[in-house]
Recover the amino acids of this structure.
């Protein structure tokens, strides 16, 4: 290898959390771990892992390369090699090496699969599709090439091909969350909401962390009038990621529609910290505060809520000077109170 690679300080975190680097959310099943590989390949792989920990990445890649060559069918070795290449910004070098490996071993499905993954990472979709198709042809009983094909077809807008690939993967392995999530997205885009709901619910049973599937499922519940279920999904998204502004805005609207103005004001207050330049958010916050004040029996609380509402409407007009509803609210809040009327 050449001179030591220059990489960011946080590279170990990137390499250790390999799944976060990969563009596809395609999870490796236990069957993809290292089989009974020969002792030499396992020893080379372990040496490479230790070199990675020492940030000696070019030496680690050399060890992983030798481990892969010694045990072509061990996905774990390929995965670590590819992710180290990607994490150190040497994707083109990896592609050249895998192209040579595929030319030397044209009938090895594993090699074609990982070359496809590299093409995908470089956004070379046609090349990725070609390699995944070849991997599927060479290993028709292995679902992983079909899962990746489904993902790529979905990304390039070939829904029919994506459905076929996902269904083939599902026949081979029925409990893969990305397969059900991918099918759910296709049905959702087609406005086949019953089909999408079924697939999203199945995906989330397997992997509750699929945020896009959860958000789209919440929209389906909302469309069906099942607001409680939708709100549960939005709250789950916020529990996992408090900065998820789309879910928070929908939750705030739902609280407002249900006349839970205090809850709506709380959510809009948090949202206003994220969307600081949104007149719509500040207008909704002001309205929630005004209605909260109207329902509050404590005069001190009412005064405080109206002051906060006043600030929200002022901010709305700063962002949108022609906002008529904000102007009307502001005029009402600043108008002198009639005689004998409590503020």
């Amino acid at each position: 290898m050449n001179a030591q690679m220059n990489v960011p300080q946080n590279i170990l975190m990137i390499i250790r959390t390999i799944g976060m680097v990969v563009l596809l959310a395609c999870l490796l099943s236990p069957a993809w771990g290292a089989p009974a590989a020969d002792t030499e390949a396992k020893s080379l792989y372990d040496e490479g892992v230790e070199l990675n920990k020492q940030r000696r990445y070019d030496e680690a890649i050399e060890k992983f390369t030798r481990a892969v060559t010694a045990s072509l069918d061990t996905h774990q070795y390929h995965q670590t090699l590819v992710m180290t290449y990607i994490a150190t910004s040497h994707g083109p070098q990896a592609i050249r090496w895998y192209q040579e490996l595929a030319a030397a071993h044209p009938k090895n499905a594993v090699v074609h699969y990982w070359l496809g993954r590299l093409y995908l990472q470089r956004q070379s979709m046609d090349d990725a599709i070609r390699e995944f198709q070849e991997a599927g042809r060479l290993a028709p009983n292995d679902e992983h090439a079909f899962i990746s094909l489904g993902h790529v077809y979905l990304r390039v807008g070939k829904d029919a091909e994506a459905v076929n690939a996902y269904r083939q993967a599902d026949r081979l392995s029925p409990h893969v969350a990305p397969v059900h999530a991918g099918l759910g997205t296709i049905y959702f885009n087609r406005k086949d909401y019953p089909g999408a709901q079924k697939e999203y619910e199945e995906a989330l049973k397997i992997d509750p962390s699929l945020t896009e599937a959860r958000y789209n499922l919440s929209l389906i519940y909302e469309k069906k009038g099942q607001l409680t279920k939708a709100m549960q999904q939005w709250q789950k998204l916020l529990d996992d990621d408090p900065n998820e502004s789309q879910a928070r805005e929908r939750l705030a609207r739902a609280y407002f529609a249900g006349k839970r103005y205090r809850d709506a004001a709380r959510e809009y207050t948090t949202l206003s910290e994220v969307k600081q330049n949104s007149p719509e958010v500040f207008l909704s916050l002001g309205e929630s505060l005004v209605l909260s004040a109207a329902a509050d029996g404590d005069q001190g609380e009412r005064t405080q809520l109206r002051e906060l509402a006043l600030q929200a409407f002022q901010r709305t007009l700063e962002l949108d000077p022609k906002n008529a509803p904000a102007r009307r609210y502001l005029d009402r809040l600043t108008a002198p109170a009639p005689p004998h009327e409590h503020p």
In short: Residues 1-36 have pLDDT under 50 and may be disordered. Residues 299-319 form the longest helix (21 residues). The radius of gyration is 27 Å.
